[in-house]
Amino acid sequence: MRFFTLACIAAFAFLNSFYIDAIAQFSYVSPVPGSNYHHPEVGIILKTGAMMDAPSLKASLITVTGSVSGQHVCRVVLSKDGKTILINSIRKFTEGEEVTVVIADGFRKSNGDMITGVSFLFGIRPAYSSSDLESIRLARQYASDIEWMDAGISPDANTGDVVRDLCEMPDYVITATGNELKHDVFYYNFRGGTGCFGKSIISNEGDSLYATFDEERGISFTINKNGYLTYYNYVDSCFDMMDSSYNVVKQYFMGNGYRADEHEFLVFPNGHSFLFCYDIHPNLDLSDLGGLDTVDVIGCVIQELDADQNVIFEWRTWDHMMYTDAIGWAYIAVTQGQAIFDWIHANSMELDGDGNLLLSSRHLCEITKINVSTGEMMWRMGGDNNQFTFVNDIDATHFSGQHDFRRLENGNYTLFNNGNNVTPNISSAKEYQLDQLNKVATLVWSYKHPMIGTTNVFGPAMGSAQRLSNGNTFINWGLLSSNVPQVPRFTEVDAAGNIVWEFNFDGEYYICYRAYKFDWNRCAPVADSMLQLNYITADSAILSWAQPNFSSSYIFEYKLESATDWISIPVADNTITLDNLQPDSAYLWRVQSVCSSIEEASAYSGIAAFNTLSTTVLLASGEVMGLAVFPNPVDQYLTISFQVEVSGPVSVSVVNLPGETVLYESWTTSAGLNRKIINTSKLTAGVYTISLKNDQSTLRKQVIIH
Predict the structure, then answer these.
(1) 3-state SS class at 179
(2) Rounded to 10 degrees, what is the CA torsion of 195, 201, 204, 208?
(3) Would you state the CATH architecture of domain 2-123?
(4) Which residues of 604-642 are buried (b: 16+ CB within 10 A; e: fewer)?
(5) Nearest to 562 by CA among 584, 580, 541
(6) Is 2.60.40.3080 the CATH number for 624-705?
(7) What beta strand segments (E) does 48-129 contain?
(8) What is the pLDDT at residue 195?
(9) Looking at per-residue confidence, does 167 or 414 come out higher?
(10) Which pLDDT tens digit goes with each residue over 224-251?
(11) CATH code 2.60.40.10 for 528-611
């Protein structure tokens, strides 16, 4: 096992000719060239950062050969983003073998540029014995229980039946001032004797709106980024998604042979999702680091999946971090002879404003920013590898054992600081303003609960902090180490740190991983940002919208901007085609969700607008003929091709959907076939109209710009 151990410790910094060739051609290559310990079902992912020409991605240009399994037949797929090349073998690789990937010349970008062929190597993990599998099982259980153990609590299973629906709230105490945000509370309780616990929704006043307990399903019960309810499924090692009637409508699994971990799941309106797993390598030799020669080491694998659940991004701690990055109790335990080493313990993910990934790792006491286009670590904040200067934060470690790192609408960031490894132990919610260029973290707000008698409010594990729409902060104190009845479960404070709402169970000891407040509308309206104009002509338009909570149908309404009355149309799906519209006219439209299963209808969405095009004029002389635009969709360079009978002045305009001219060029053509290349890289993504004019005619084509 020494070969694999040393490769991991070196973070696979293996810069051979294969690696250099790959990097020269692609901004992102997965598996990392020269890396080891990959799952036998691993897929190959390539990114160039540019739109690709799908017909050029031929399987015949790809040779994938295992040192034991021989040559593999592969499927080649271009992801819907048009930039990510997915190469998947139709059979598994053999455990312990080395895989060679050779891509011949011939892949092309959408602008026609050819990509020179590349080659690289990676290794597959060794075969696991029955004792290895048992070690992995025990290590996975350890990773699940470690936060309980840090709090000095036994992680026993919940009491009661396997599945129960209980809608009577146990005794509770609420302190309210009227200044709280009066939304519903979503949480999952691990423990409880009677009443509603498990996946629960309660009103601001404590009334039970939904509650069910299933010890095989739960944790992180929340409304996700796409507006649907999600939670972890322990049976299938995936995340379940529920509709507004609490029916499971979809499951999200990791790819490449991995089992999703319970701690975090993100799914967005475009269908893309992020999951991670604790990846266990058994019986590694850490004697060179002062540990044992047989240690079960727990790393982390992160994946982004597209709407078709193709893995389009994979990132492993084994490739980018060192064992010795772990701080405090995690690393010390190894040097003191512990046989399980949970050196990362990732617990939350978030997308930053630039679309890159923010990872919170409890045992590193670190927030790591990861570039999802290249796989590179952009920066590290907190812990022993901290790159930031902290301002206004007098806490010695700033944060430790932290959870729930989130980006706010104002561009700042919040987290729940568990406060491990400091004296005295006390938890807090914090908000930072980050200067990412100069790497300065300025503490702009924080909150620590007043002592309960002589007891600090300290949750050594779990916990969450949510900034609410009214500026208040909703805090779940997590796995409290002290069973003092007066210690609250949830606290809402205003910007000045005044407690405006607080909740506690009376006489029962409940434990909650995360808790959030949401405005829960079982029949949710269509989000304004999800109203989309897909196609438009002088007399027609195709409109669509995202489906909130799997609404059964919709009421679509539209009218001329100058009209008084709306035209109402029942729609079964989330798209509609309008015909017989008036040319060169402004229209308004909106959508209402209908949820027949719960006999409810949502409020209408906001009002969106569009303009039909002017009627195309083409004179009989036909001075301009045969207009073609390509590629379509276009990423950067658009080619316009047309014919004219005689030379003369011609102009081209690029017009957005609201009818604004965003680009204009004019020149003198020659008789015959003409071509013009337009740089569209500075235009925002969307649908545009290309308008070509001379003295005799006007021709139009629609184009999609990524």
Answers:
(1) coil
(2) -40
(3) Sandwich (2.60)
(4) ebeebebbbbbeeeeeeeebbeebebebeebbbbbbbeb
(5) 584
(6) yes
(7) 62-66, 70-72, 74-78, 84-89, 98-103, 118-123
(8) 52
(9) 414
(10) 998 889 999 988 999 999 877 788 889 9
(11) yes
